[in-house]
Amino acid sequence: MLNTYGVTWTLSYPNTFVYPLVMETSDHVPCVISISTSIPKRSHFQFENYWMEHPDFLSVVQQGWLAPHYITDSAKVITTKFKNLRRELKLWQKKYFQPQRDYC
Questions:
Q1: Pairwise CA distance, residues 92 & 89, whole Å
Q2: Which has the least CB within 10 A, 58, 63, 85, 89?
Q3: What was the pLDDT predicted at 103?
Q4: Is 83 helix (H, G, I), strand (E, B) or coil?
Q5: Where are the extended beta strands (E) located within the chain?
Q6: In this structure, are residues 44 and 93 in contact, taking their beta carbons and an 8 Å threshold?
Q7: How many domains does the chain have?
Q8: 63-86 pLDDT per residue, tens
């Protein structure tokens, strides 16, 4: 019978396996635990120095940095500010700096 913690663990980490090892001199059995997860990869963000020359750059940075948030933890506030800034710069980049494609 599984306890609640075991069920929660199994649902959270469905690709977890336990491999018992042989231990001939003890009544204890050492185990190797393998936990597989799939962490989605995010697209890479790269800041371009030439953006700073664009007349709208500072306003985009201000908009991203000053975006409202409802977090009180200082570490989470700075993380949220950087995420908001990255989001705004990505949107702005797509609008103004995406390479134009020639369609023949």
A1: 5
A2: 58
A3: 52
A4: helix
A5: 15-20, 31-36
A6: no
A7: 2
A8: 999 998 888 888 899 999 999 999
